[in-house]
C-alpha cells in the first residue's frame, strides 16, 4: 500500500476517533488486529478491539489534537504523536474514582498496515501523569 493511501487510512482512523465513530474505526482494522494498550495486555482480533472501544466509551470522552503523523515510504508502518484531551466520566476498574475530571496528555501510537487495513495498533502514554491529572495518587516506579 503506497504511503499516500496509508496516510489516508490513519487520518481516517483518527477522524473517526475524534467523531466518536467506533464503528468506522472498527471498519478500518483487520480481523486479526493486534492491539497493544498502554500498561495493559495484548488484545487479539476485531472483537477484542470492539470490547475495548465499548469500555473506553463508557469511561472516557476523548479528543486528539496536534496530531503529527509519520508513514514509511512503503506504507506498511506509521507512527503518530498527539495530545489526548479528555474527560473521565465513569470510574475505570483499578484507577481513581471518576468525577468528570479533565486531562491533557501527550501520547503516541504505532501502526502496522497490511492489505489496506490496520493490522496492529500500539499506544503509549504516561499513566502516572494521567493519574496525577485526575487527582489520583501517584505511585513511584519500583
UniProtKB/TrEMBL annotation:
Database matches in InterPro entries: CHP02096, NTF2-like_dom_sf, SnoaL-like
Name of the protein: SnoaL-like domain-containing protein
SnoaL-like domain segment(s): 11-121
Pfam families: SnoaL_2
Top-rank taxon, per record: Bacteria
Amino acid at each position: 500500500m503506497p504511503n499516500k493511501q496509508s496516510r489516508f487510512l490513519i487520518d481516517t482512523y483518527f477522524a473517526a476517533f475524534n467523531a466518536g465513530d467506533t464503528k468506522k474505526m472498527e471498519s478500518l482494522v483487520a480481523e486479526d488486529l493486534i492491539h497493544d494498550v498502554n500498561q495493559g495486555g495484548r488484545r487479539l482480533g476485531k472483537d477484542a478491539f470492539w470490547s475495548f472501544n465499548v469500555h473506553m466509551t463508557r469511561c472516557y470522552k476523548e479528543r486528539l489534537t496536534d496530531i503529527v503523523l509519520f508513514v514509511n515510504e512503503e506504507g506498511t508502518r506509521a507512527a503518530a504523536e498527539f495530545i489526548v484531551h479528555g474527560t473521565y466520566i465513569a470510574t475505570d476498574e483499578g484507577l481513581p474514582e471518576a468525577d468528570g475530571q479533565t486531562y491533557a496528555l501527550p501520547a503516541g501510537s504505532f501502526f502496522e498496515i497490511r492489505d489496506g487495513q490496520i493490522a496492529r495498533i500500539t499506544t503509549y502514554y504516561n499513566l502516572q501523569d494521567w493519574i496525577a491529572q485526575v487527582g489520583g495518587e501517584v505511585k513511584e516506579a519500583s
